[in-house]
Design a protein that fits this description.
Layout: H1 29-34, H2 38-53, H3 79-83, H4 93-97, H5 112-118, H6 165-185, H7 188-191, H8 201-208, E1 211-215, E2 218-222, H9 225-232, H10 247-256, H11 268-282, H12 288-291, H13 297-304, H14 313-318, H15 321-324, H16 338-345, H17 348-357, H18 372-378
Antiparallel strand pairs: 1-2
Helix pairs in contact: 6-9, 6-10, 6-11
């Protein structure tokens, strides 16, 4: 295996710090750096490049290496402390943009010591004479000006619901007549989803006076349909609740009508309009899931005319005057417990205090079984 021949020890080179005499005109590196004009040339080149890149005044310093921006003020506080606001306004934007008069926010009174220093003539009050009376928050919305008429809820359906089937059938026939009147006038497509004018009792009588003719499954009106459509599409009038049809009147009207009008077939748009109008007049809303299965007027009548729930015994007894005149009889809607009975006569506070003195539970069993004595006798505990 060949080996590298032994290399003799390197001789130390002579250290000559003085510049060589062979090149006396050549300056040293430090001297060359000192007399260099590179910064000036670079500044001119930078101005030329900045002028080409920016048509107007160029942003930023001309020389970013020498003209540095001033450092921003630093803080030792954490970001949570810097972002903290003493009293942030957390009121929703919808409430701030509304026309409601909101209650005033909580304020703190200036201490008496600070008032004396700022106003030497300050004298503390000794009575409440002349002070402004501020109402509580619970009665804020009952005060005038805090809740306007424009902010009140305007329900689409009737507030008083109709429970009798005959009365529901009367208003359903009115809705069908009005539907046919709008279809014959050619404005049903524009008014199918809008609110129709309800009118007074005379409008109801004139609508029910129009006859419905059914031939080959198609319905038509035997009367002036244009006048009915004009009354429905007129400007809505703010009137009180119109006079309702009584149960006896409804029974007579239902007997005089031909039941063939209940077999009128309704498409999806017609069903929606009739359901909407019936909800406006009677307050009975047919659910969407059940409305999809209905195909005729009779189906909608079956869904809208619900049997009223039977009254409870409490409701029946509360209407009796002979029971209300008795001083020792009182009707309740639920069972009265023992604690409620003792509270009425004023003994519950005494019972509660005595139970606490003996270390017994006030209510419940505190985890103890009912037959604790039996467990003691049998030796289970």
């Amino acid at each position: 295996m060949p080996r590298i021949p032994r290399v003799s020890g390197l001789k130390a080179l002579p250290l000559n710090l003085a510049p060589s005499s062979a090149s006396p005109a050549r300056p040293s590196f430090a001297a060359a750096r000192a007399i260099s004009t590179t910064c000036v040339a670079r500044g001119k080149n930078t101005e030329w490049v900045r002028g080409k890149l920016w048509k107007g005044e160029a942003p930023g310093p001309e020389d970013p290496y020498t003209q540095r921006p001033e450092p921003e003020e630093s803080s030792n506080l954490p970001e949570e402390a810097l972002e903290y606001q003493p009293h942030p306004d957390r009121t929703p934007a919808q409430i701030l943009a509304s026309r409601l008069t909101l209650p005033p926010k909580r304020t703190e009174a200036t201490p008496e010591s600070q008032l004396k220093s700022s106003d030497p003539t300050y004298v503390p009050a000794t009575d409440a004479e002349g002070l402004e009376e501020i109402s509580t928050i619970t009665t804020w919305w009952d005060q005038p000006g805090h809740w306007g008429a424009e902010s009140e809820f305007d329900a689409f359906g009737s507030v008083a619901k109709v429970a009798d089937k005959e009365i529901v059938e009367v208003y359903l026939r009115r809705a069908v007549v009005e539907l046919l009147a709008l279809q014959e006038s050619g404005v049903f497509a524009d008014w199918a989803t809008k609110k129709w004018n309800e009118g007074d009792r005379s409008a109801l009588d004139s609508t029910l006076a129009v006859e419905i003719q059914v031939q080959d499954g198609k319905a038509s009106l035997n009367g002036d349909a244009s006048s009915l459509s004009q009354g429905l599409t007129a400007e809505l009038e703010e009137v009180d609740t119109p006079e309702r049809v009584t149960l006896d009147e409804a029974k007579e009207l239902v007997k005089a009508w031909d039941p063939a009008w209940k077999s009128i077939a309704l498409d999806e748009q017609a069903k929606f309009a009739v359901r909407k109008r019936l909800y406006q007049l009677t307050g009975n809303l047919v659910p969407d899931a059940k409305l999809a299965a209905a195909t005729t007027v009779k189906h909608i009548l079956t869904l809208a005319a619900k049997e009223p729930k039977p009254q409870k015994l409490t409701q029946l007894l509360s209407r009796r005057d002979d029971l209300q005149r008795l001083s020792n009889v009182k009707v309740h809607s639920r069972k009265i417990r023992a604690i409620e009975k003792e509270t009425v006569v004023g003994r519950w506070k005494v019972i509660e205090e005595e139970l606490k003195k003996r270390g017994l539970p006030v209510t419940g069993t505190a985890g103890l079984s009912k037959n604790k004595e039996r467990d003691w006798i049998t030796g289970k505990a």
